[in-house]
Amino acid sequence: MASGIFPEEVVREILLMLPVNSLLRCKSVCKTWYTLITKPSFTTAHHNCNAALKGNRCILIKRFLKGSNKSVLSFLSDEISGDDHFPPTEITIPHSNHFLQMLGPCNGIVCLTDHRDIILCNPSIRAFKVVPAPSFNYPQGLFSRTLGVGFGFDPHSNEYKVIRIAELHEDDESLGYSFHSVKVEICDMSTDSWREIAAVVPYVWYFPCSELLFNGAFHWWADDEDHGGESMLSFHISTEVFQQIRLPSVCAFPDGNERAFLALNESIALILFDASEQTSFDIWLMTEYGVAESWTKLITIGPLVQVERPILFWKHELLLEKANGQLVSCNLKSQRLKEFQVYGAQESFRAVAYSESLVSINRGSDIS
C-alpha cells in the first residue's frame, strides 16, 4: 500500500476504519500516510465514521485515586459486564483536585474543570490544553466567582467555545458578602480569547452531574425567577441564546434532594435523589425538548443500599457510585445491581459516552 499498489482513495477508506491507536502508528509508515492521516478532512471523516458506528462507543470515566493522589481517565468497553471488567488503561489528568467535573464530549474532546481551572482533553491521543484564565477588569471592589462552566462546538464558526457564568460580589469587612450581578463570558478556542456577552441570566446552582451538553446546547440547574421555583438553563452554542425551562412542580429547592441531568433515549432526564443509607432515584424525562409541560415521571429506582449518586445512562443500565467509591450499575428493568472492581474517591466519579477521535488540541498551552 505504501508503495502505491492501491489507489489513494482505497488506502484512505481502509485507514478510516482503523482505531486511533493504529492510526497513530500508521503515521510512521511513510510520508504519504502521515500526510493523509494528519489532514483535517481525514480527522473529520474518521470522527464521523466512528460516530455513525455507535457500536464503537465506549464509556469514559473520570475518578480520583486516593493512594496516588491523582485524577485519571479510564475507558470501559461497549459491553459492560461484572466483576471481571477492569479499565485497561489509566490516563493521568494534570490536575490534583478530585472534584473535577467532566463536560462534553465534543468530537472526542472533553472539558475538565473545578470551576477555577479549565482543561480541554482528547484522551484518544493523550492531549491536554489549559484554557487561559479570563482577564477582565471588573469595577474596583468587585470580585468574580464561577457559578457554572459550559463547553461545546459551533459548527457554523467551526470553533469550540468555553462558557463561564460568573457571579460578581463585594467583600467588605464591615458589610460582609454582598451579591452584585451575574455575567456571561465566552472563550473562543480558535483565538484563546475571552469576551463578555450581554445576557440576563438567573443564578446557577451546582451539584455533581448537574451540567450537561445535549443537542447543541449546554444546560445548568438554575433559579426560575418568574415562577418562584427551579429551572434548567440552556445556552445554544451556535446562536448564543439562553432559554429557561421549568422543572417539574415536585422540585422545590431546598428540599433535601440532589439533582442530576443525564441523557437518556435521545432526551434529557432529571434525576432526584437523596444520598443516604438507602437511596431512591426518581427519574423524570423531558419527552419534548424545551417544553416544561412534557416532563414525565418515568420510573423510581431503589431504594438501593449504600448507593449514593447517578453517573451515566448506558443502554439499559444506570451507572452509579457507591458510598465507598465503587462503580456499580443498575438494570433499569430488573433493578438488579452489578459491581465493578473500579474504585475512586467518594464523589469523584464522572462518566460520558465516548467515541474516539483524532481531533487535535493545537492552540494554547499543551501538556504532555
Task: Walk me through the structure.
It is a single chain. By secondary structure, the chain is mainly β. It has one domain (49-367): Kelch-type beta propeller (Neuraminidase). 10% of the residues lie in helices and 49% in strands. The protein has four helices and 26 strands. It has helices at 8-16, 20-26, 31-37, 40-52, and strands at 58-65, 70-76, 90-93, 101-106, 109-113, 118-122, 127-130, 142-154, 159-172, 176-188, 193-197, 204-205, 212-214, 217-224, 229-236, 242-246, 258-264, 267-273, 278-286, 295-305, 307-314, 317-322, 326-331, 337-343, 350-354, 365-367. The strands form six sheets. The chain has a five-stranded antiparallel beta sheet with strand order 4-5-6-7-26, with no helix packed on it. Strands 12, 13, 14, 15 and 16 form a five-stranded antiparallel beta sheet that branches. Strands 3-2-1-25 form a four-stranded antiparallel beta sheet, with no helix packed on it. The longest helix is centred in the first third of the chain and has 13 residues, at 40-52. The radius of gyration is 22 Å and the shape is globular. 32% of the residues are buried. Mean pLDDT is 85; it is low at 82-86 and 363-368.
